[in-house]
Amino acid sequence: MMADLRELYQETILDHSKRPRNFHEIPHPDASAVGHNPLCGDRVTVFLRLSDGVLADVAFVGQGCAISKASASLMTDAVKGKTKAQAHELFEKFRRMVTGRPGDPVDTPSLGKLAVLSGVCEFPVRVKCASLPWHTLEAAIEAKKEIVSLE
Amino acid sequence: MAKPAKMLLNVPAIKADFPILQRKVRDRRLVYLDSAATSQKPKQVIEATTDFYSRYNANVHRAIYELGEEATREYEGAREKIAAFIGARSPNEIVFTKSTTESLNLVAYGYGLKGKLQKGDEIVGTVMEHHSNHVPWHFVKDHKGAVLKYVDVNDDGTLKIEQYDELLTKRTKIVTVTLCSNVLGTINPVKEIAKRAHEVGAVCVVDAAQAAPHMPIDVQDLNADFLAFSGHKMLGPTGIGILHGKPEALEATEPLLGGGEMIREVHLGRASWNDVPYRFEGGTPNIAGAIGLGAAVDYLTNLGMEAVRTHEMEITQYALDKIGRIKGVTTYGPKDVKKKAGVLAFTIDNAHPHDVASILDVEGICVRSGHHCAQPLMERYDLPATARASFYVYNDLEDVDVLVAGIKKVQEVFA
User: Virtual CA dihedral for B157, B158, B162, B165, nearest 10 degrees?
Assistant: First the structure.
């Protein structure tokens, strides 16, 4: 594989896209939201169980490309047990990473496993794929009823 | 399948005419397989538009000076070339618009919405249309109470022609169909469909955006009432489109844009209109675009549209054989190249089309991925998305070989 391609499709990303974690519905969730990227047909639904402002459980279902699926899978692992504010802060850091310039320093201590998606910044058209689950999570947290649409 | 010894078109010479094909993408040779979205432009077209801006830029039909006369002559000359290209009886049957989309909207608005259609009148389309031949008719339904009906597709990507027996009635006023599907490549029997439309007293509206660039079109033989296509998919600039209409069909169409150029006389509160086709060209037109499209038509005419079609059939056959044989790859649309243009939609098991396009991009290959502005068709086949390769005069069998190698790379990544 070529260098930039290896960046985009790292082993961890392929693993999470093939075997996504928390890939199920949460029955009677405290919140949920649907995200849709009409450009590529990606569709994701994020479910939340909240306990005292903490994301006690997070899960998702949907169909999409390897990047969006891996991003959703990694996201659910990363935000579980975090407060709404912490989840939002993590999204901000994640957003900075995928929209940054190739070679920018990556805040690996705070991003943890999410850092494997840093290669996305070399492929600007794929930023939406990586961000869709996060936008959908935010919508669920803010209990927005309408479908999140990234176009 | 063995490669034919020599292709009909001199592709190396053609490639040399396209400056963009000399560039590299991610350090690879650019293999452009997305001409169904937009074609690349030969230097002859680029020079024709530059020439207009650098030598005789002036507004058309108004200026009483040499520059204006030259601009008008070239602009109207382009109209004549386009008329000849599709076998129109007169340049007056050619309306310049900005795109196929605008052409189809002009018909939906001017003939459907503002024209003679009554509440309950029926419009028959198909499920394989591009969004630009769906949504304008939704407007006619929503604002005029027209009833929309659709011909379905077979699993092999052809139209269920027999459904016209039932769908066409004396209430049918408009029958609209694409000459060539932008996803499946299916070439539809439009001549027959137009005949059927006329038998019930309807007009036939044809979306030729994917056909005009790739095969000979004779509007008199097809005998449709309106036919729309775009410049940018046939080597021409963006922002220029064509609506061909039979004189009586254009006369029955109200203008979409009011303003300069399209009028004969204007008084406070009322105006009379210019003749067809000028009444549809309100505002300063895309003069450079029209002139560029004229140069594109010259280029294609020089190659010969029969030769273009034969060339693309050869490539498509080769691609169907090569790609269709890869295990884990599914192709969509007719397998018989006599019924199919150079458009090949495909999916790879366990790989989302978006990932396919990204991996191919790294190899320097441009393909489209997504729903191709044909969501009703994608729903019909229960596909969220596909990848799509499309071919044109500057592609050769080697480009297909590069694509095949790229597809195998995708399979390695997602093995």
Answer: 100
Number of domain units in chain A: 1
B405 in a domain, yes or no? yes
Q: Which of residues 310-369 of B touch A (CB under 8 A)?
A: 350-355, 358-359, 361-362, 369
Please state, in angstroms and rounded to a whole number, the distance separating the CA atoms of residues B56 and B132: 34
| pLDDT higher than 70, residue B364 | yes
Give the C-alpha separation, B221 to B224, whole Å: 9
Domain contains A151: no
Q: Contact, B332 vs B381, CB < 8 A?
A: yes
Domain end point (choices B246, B281, B301) = B301
B256 with B312, same domain: the answer is: no
- Mean pLDDT to the nearest integer, B193-198: 98
10 Å CB burial of residue A57 (0-12, 13-18, 19+) is middle
> Å from A117 to nearest chain B CA?
14
Among chain A residues, the shortest Cα distance to B409 is held by A1
What pLDDT does B1 receive?
47
Q: Which A positions 94-133 lie with beta carbon below 8 A of chain B?
A: 123, 125-126, 129
β partners of residue A148: A35
Residues B161 and B247 in one domain: yes
At B64, is the pLDDT very low, low, confident or very high (cuts 50, 70, 90)? Answer: confident
Task: Tell me which H or E stretch contains B128.
Answer: none
In the prediction, which pLDDT does B269 show? 92
Q: Per-residue pLDDT averaged across A136-148, rounded?
A: 80
pLDDT digits (tens, 9 = 90+) for B7-59: 789 999 999 999 999 999 888 999 999 999 999 999 999 999 999 999 999 99
Least confident range of A23-37, A135-149, B192-206, B211-225: A135-149
Cβ of A40 within 8 Å of Cβ of B378? The answer is no
Residue B21 shares a structural domain with residue B106: no
Q: In whole angstroms, give the CA distance from residue A136 to residue A44.
A: 8
**Measured between beta carbons, which residues in chain A are less than 8 angstroms from residue B359?**
5, 9
Whether residue B176 contacts residue B190, with contact meaning beta carbons closer than 8 Å, is answered with: no
Q: Chain B: give the shortest CA distance to residue A131, in Å.
A: 15
Q: Which of B362, B385, B413 sits opposite A40 (nearest CB)?
A: B385
Closest alpha carbon to B20 in B41, B5, B49, B47: B41
Are B235 and B39 in contact by the 8 Å Cβ rule? The answer is yes
Average pLDDT over residues A93-99: 95
pLDDT at B27: 87
Please tell me which of the candidates A8, A38, A66 has its beta carbon nearest to residue B352. Answer: A66
Cα distance between residue A84 and residue B73, in whole Å: 67
Neighbours of A107 (CB within 10 A): 15
Q: What is the ipTM of this complex?
A: 0.85
